[in-house]
Amino acid sequence: MTPFDAALAAMEHPWRWGTHDCCASACSAFALLRGVDPMLPLRGCYASANEASELIEAWGGWESMTEILGAMAGLRPCAGGAGAIGLHRGGRSHSLVFGIGAGLWAGKSLRGMEVVKTVERAWI
């Protein structure tokens, strides 16, 4: 399976908080390719935008949450690339995205899979 195939498989479902949102989908793609789910401790813990926001705040914000969850899953920081997971900032919001190659990152949105070119941090 290629990183692009993993992204397509993980992001083909309609948006649903907790199972098919930006974080869950990126982590599902990572798990399909690498066999490790960085979001495992949070699966089943939220089902709405408000619950997701409360959870992120409880973990100390996006940066803190992603660093902690990455470390818990045994991931290490990297420069990015195909098969990596990344923290993307779009405007005032963050999301998790999945590296599909050639400097591109796939992310789940309400419209389906979208491709972005930048991340603030990445792990593998």
Automatic annotation (TrEMBL):
Domain DUF6950: 9-123
UniProt xrefs under InterPro entries: DUF6950 (IPR053802)
Superkingdom assignment: Bacteria
Protein name in UniProt: DUF6950 domain-containing protein
Organism per entry: Pseudotabrizicola algicola
